[in-house]
Amino acid sequence: MEPLLKVQAISKTYGQSLQALRQVSFDVVPGEVVGLAGSSGAGKSVLTSILAGLEMPSKGDIWFDGETLTQPWNPRGLGVEIIHQEPELVSQLDITTNIFLGYELGRKTAGNSRWSFLPNNSRMDRKATQILNKIGIQFPSLRELVLNLPAEHRQLLAIARVMTRTPRLLVIDDPSDLLSIRYQEKLLELITEWRANGTAVIFASNNLDHLFSVTDRVVILREGRVAARLRTDETTREKLVTEMVGSRSENLTPAIWAMDRYYRARQQAENLTRQQGFLKKDLRVQGDLNQQLVEELAIQVRALDQANLSLQDAQRRLMTERELERKHLAREIHDQVIQDLLGTNYQIEALELSASNGLSEQLAEIRTDIRQMVDDLRRICGDLRPPTIDSLGLGAAINSFVREWIDRAGVPVELSISNELGRLPEAIELSVFRIVQEGLNNVWRHAEAKHVHVSIDRTSPRTLLLTIQDDGVGLPKDFDLGAMSAGGHYGVLGISERVALLGGRLQLHNQPKGGTMLQAEIPHPRQAK
Amino acid sequence: MTELAKKTENRGPIESAGGRQQTLGEFMGSWWDRIRAGDLGSLPIIIGLIVIVAIFGYLSDGIFFKPRNFVNLLLQMSGITAIATGVVFVLLIAEIDLSTAFVGAVGSVTMTLLLREGDANWPWWAAVGAAMLVTTLIGLLHGLIITRAGVPSFVVTLAGLLAWSGVVLILTTQYSQAGTIVIQNPVVKGVANSFLPAFWGWFVCVAVVLGYAATEFYQRAVKARQNLAVKPIQISLLQIIGLALITGAAVWYANTDRGVPVSIMIALVFLFFWLFIATRTRFGRYVYAVGGNPEAARRAGINVNSIRIACFMISSFMAGIGGIILASRLGSVSTNTGGGNLLLNSIAAAVIGGTSLFGGSGRVTSALLGALVIASVENGMGLMGWNSGVKFVVNGLVLLAAVLVDAYSRRSRASSGIA
What we know:
The complex is a heterodimer. Chain A is an alpha/beta fold. Chain A has helices at 44-51, 95-100, 121-135, 151-162, 181-196, 208-214, 237-245, 252-286, 288-354, 357-384, 389-392, 394-409, 426-447, 481-484, 491-501; strands spanning 5-14, 18-28, 33-37, 59-64, 67-68, 80-83, 169-173, 200-204, 217-222, 225-231, 413-417, 452-460, 463-470, 505-510, 516-523. Chain A folds into three domains: 5-274, P-loop containing nucleotide triphosphate hydrolases (Rossmann fold); 307-385; 390-529, Heat Shock Protein 90. In chain A, the strands form three sheets. Chain A has a six-stranded mixed β-sheet with strand order 6-7-8-3-9-10, sandwiched between helices. In chain A, β12 and β13 (463-470) form a beta hairpin. The longest helix of chain A has 67 residues, at 288-354. Chain A is elongated. The mean pLDDT of chain A is 82. Chain B is an all-alpha fold. Chain B has a single domain (52-194, 261-416), classed as Orthogonal Bundle (ABC transporter involved in vitamin B12 uptake, BtuC), CATH 1.10.3470. Helix content of chain B is 75%, strand content 1%. Chain B has helices spanning 3-10, 14-17, 24-36, 43-59, 67-92, 100-115, 124-149, 153-175, 186-193, 198-225, 233-256, 262-280, 282-292, 294-299, 304-330, 342-352, 366-384, 388-416; strands at 180-182, 332-334. Chain B has a two-stranded antiparallel sheet with strand order 1-2. The longest helix of chain B is centred in the C-terminal third of the chain and has 29 residues, at 388-416. At the A-B interface, α3 of A face α1, α2, α13 and α14 of B.
């Protein structure tokens, strides 16, 4: 078929050096939708405004219906309609007048345009209503001035203007920025319809979904040049984007992804807004009832908060009680059992002197066992209640615990404790100690680490930062703190609970070099000097 | 939610919205809403007019109200009304024409020279036709310079003001030592010095009222057929009766003196002609479109430049009509023709009547209301014998008041979302 529009080697230069278009050529036949794609700055808008007669090309020809156009032309005189990115309407005039501006309808009897110098308002109103119904929008009055309409409705009027007659060529410069998804889809429907009626359509858009749903071919502009001409049926999104972006690197997928994500996000945002609108409307409609419900909900949430607080309080008390119990138990064991055992040991030692050789050997063995028991009991005491924490403070307690842990686990630990640590409230000192204890035990049990680093620093005068790093196997991939308790692993959970009770923050993650890092930031009250 | 969205939501499709007659209450309600929102229409100027009339009626001990003065007032305002009608078109496309008074003077001088007995001695219709042709061509010239060279109309017509005043001076002094040329043609002299006989006065009055009533009922019928909301029948009747009363009273009052002046009839015929052009024709729509948003008009396929040229031609044409009426009233043209505050009065009339200086909004009838205000003030001050200094100050204040009312209503319209 003869092309309706032939663009031949058009160039557009601004000033001396800015080349917006270089040798752009393409053509369009009637009943064909040609997409025009290209990232911003590729020259899409310049090309459409040249086609719209708003700008003149610096070089090249445009042929329309076999005749070359001399700039500046009047597109509407040729049956060419343009939908611009942003509509230009006369705000002081009403809806009907704007829709038919430049192409008024005269008396019905005339049929031709002889009488169109006397526009027939009622006829135009009727046709405007038809067109607007087809687009899917209704106005309370067609006499409404356009300046009272929101931007989306103005854009719809610009589309309605195109529908007053069947255009021969339609140039659409992506108007979807102003349109909600619903009307974007409407526009696509209309494009398909125009195409069926034999209109040639040029559709500039970067929305891949739109391009793929309506176009027959896509002309891709890049840096002012035609980068590619693709048949929509025979191409893929990747190919299209490759040409738009102009590189075949692996960065391509992210580019498609980003574009799709952008449009999809917009759609979601719009749905959300709409739902929010519905929700607001519902709220208003249901009025008092909902208000009441919301208030009740607020009360319950507050009650829940309170319950949560008291639960925390209870847990804190429980923990304190437990610590107290342990302290008690430790003292009991230390002061009673160990002393008794030592006394027994001395008695056996005395017996040993007066005993026969065979017996004394046995007695020595028993004494070794007892000393072993005492050692074990001391360790248990230490675990129950770090012996040094009450007298010498957190630093000393951790120090001695770590030294003992190294003996037990056989893994070297680098310990650095800030000098300014000082004394803290008992609950905090104990909690920190327990976290270190639990953390190191976790390392021993799961990490298979070669080296561990423990540090306690001050990040501010009122916060403490505890870090435990290891170079072990790290956390499992599907690590989920919430699922820990189900599996019976209370270690990390206990740590997180303790941190939460102190109002702190816990971070637990794998390190880039391997191994796990546990960081707990714990606030504490001002220290007494 | 905006007002508009609410409206959209509450009402269904257009078809179901109308198809019935609004009740009187609904109509008054929506009218009052518009007033409160600042869409005052002609209300302020009518109130202003009543105030002005009351003040001068009181100050002049009732002389202002005498039939003789009423007819004088009509004579005084006809020239300004004609010129202001043309100015409205130029203001509608957001331009200005400062040359109208002297273009009118060029027209009237041309006519007078062509009528000179013993010299050109053209028949009156040929002389008037030639004068109108000259003024219209002057408008074409202004329009061409403004559109082709892209020079602001302010500058071009300012140059026109100077140049055409010079032309008037040259022509009048060339043919008369004293600089005053008397018009002898009885027809032309009759324009501003003859009056409709009582019968014809009443005839015009009845014709206008019947014509108005006919269009009103025709429009009602059309709207009803298309299921659009129709305003209450009481309002239509009230408007018709009101018009009948006002025109009837005016004709009756004028008839108790000399009768309705022919000059005001000429001005009104042209005014209604241009009113029809502005509101009912495609050209009128394009004028509003070009004034409102030239870019939108251009993209809609309107030849913006030819619309602008046409508006300057209308302005100069109506200036010619006004110039002839004014010359006829004086019975002569002189070096002073077109001078004084004629230009400012004609522009002020259009603005006071409610035509926006920023283009795109205003009515042709504003020329009539504005001219009535200006002429009333002039007439009243003339009766009081105030000196011209005071007159200028008062004129300035009236203009300022009109612009302030416009600015106020514009702002409240903007804040209420109507405009």
